Amino acid sequence: MFAAITGWGKCLPPAILSNDDLATFLETNDEWISTRTGMKERRISHVNVSELAYVACERALAAAGKTAQDVDLIVFGSTTFDELCPNAASNVQRLLGADNAACMDVNTACTSGMYSLTTATAMIKSGVVKSALVIGAEVISPIMDWQNRDVAVLFGDGAAALYLEASSEPAGVLAESLGCFGESREILAVQGWGMKYANQQRVLGQASWAFLGQEIFKKAVAGMAQGSLKTLDKLNFSAQDIDLIVPHQANLRIIDSLAKKLNLPKEKVFINIEKYGNMSAATALVAFVEAIEQGRVSAHNHILLPAFGGGLTWSAHLVKFGDRTQAIAQANVELPECNKTGLMLVNDIIACKKRA
Fold first, then answer.
1. In the CATH scheme, what is the homologous superfamily, with its name and number, of domain 2-328?
2. What contacts 161, CB < 8 A, 6 or more positions away?
3. How much is the pLDDT for 84?
4. Which label site among 54, 69, 131, 320 has the fewest CB atoms less than 10 Å from its CB?
């Protein structure tokens, strides 16, 4: 039994925060950011993460030609859930009207969407469920330390979803590898976000970030390369057997270093970092969905999806795509209207934190 990917959808909030916008309150400029990261802009959400996830799921269901009643399981990968109890997946279930779906949340930071893909795939392969929605979504902007240039320029908000269903034909995740550099977890951490900080006179959202860029760079390249090679080895594949690699979009230099380690030419690497930055749990899935939408994925292609996140978690999935790469239908659903720019939304967040 396999878990074929038959539906895909994404949801990016409309408000854009450009590098020039960041320069209005940080000591930086477009050249400094773009040359070091490859990023030109990112999205800032005016709604909670569950609402982004809901729209992405509706679009994934439409692409698969399914309805909410066809969903047996919702696995929601994120770090920025609306609430911890009840879980955020149950809110997506309610918004969709997916009454038959079991619901669970997964948090492994930037790899959350990919760990969710593993979870849903395993449950379909084992026969527990026959279908699943996999979500990678994040609204990081409210907990961002907007005065810290090291992190403020890197992250954005967004969501993507995949619809999986049981298949007798080899499709979906054929092999994956998961891991974690737990001894180095402090080099990438959001301090002030969790029960550890309860009763410490700290307002929720007043988070500071530990971010040791050079160490993270080394671990990210090592983790994704190690995971990719382990995954390929499970299928007796070489990197040359891959039709496309869609890596986590954290930094263009990391992506370039990974491609060199795997000896993959640039034309086999999908990159969209310039538009969205690092959306944490949403990043790899949004890139995968865009690769499908842009015609970079053909029927029966083998796609490698390496990712890396806080923890320090890493993963690498080898996906075989099915027969169909075109959406069956389009969902008639949109986010509520946003009447503010990305800069206006960020300035609101900064002002709110100053008042707290």
1. Thiolase/Chalcone synthase (3.40.47.10)
2. 7, 8, 9, 10, 53, 56, 57, 59, 60, 133, 134, 135, 136, 137, 285
3. 86
4. 69
Residue 256 confidence class, pLDDT cut points 50, 70, 90: very high
CB 54 within 8 A of CB 92: yes
The string over 94-120, giving b where at least 16 C-beta atoms fall within 10 Å of a residue's C-beta and e elsewhere, is ebbebeebbbbbbbbbbbbbbbbbbbb
Per-residue pLDDT, averaged over 135-161, amounts to 96
- pTM of the predicted model as reported, rounded to 2 decimal places: 0.96
**Cβ–Cβ contacts within 10 Å for residue 290, how many?**
20
Is the pLDDT reported for residue 353 higher than 90? no
Query: Hey, which residues are catalytic here?
Result: 110, 248, 278
Assess whether the previous peptide bond of 86 is cis (omega < 30° from 0). yes
Bridge-partner residues for 36, per DSSP? none
Q: Cβ neighbours of residue 179 under 8 Å, at least 6 residues apart? A: 223, 226, 227, 313, 314, 315
pLDDT on residue 355: 76
Domain boundaries of the chain, sorted by first residue? 2-328
Average pLDDT over residues 22-49: 97
In this prediction, residue 197 carries a pLDDT of 73
- Mean pLDDT of all residues belonging to the chain: 95
Separation between Cα atoms, residue 164 and residue 110, nearest integer Å: 21
pLDDT of 202 above 70:
no
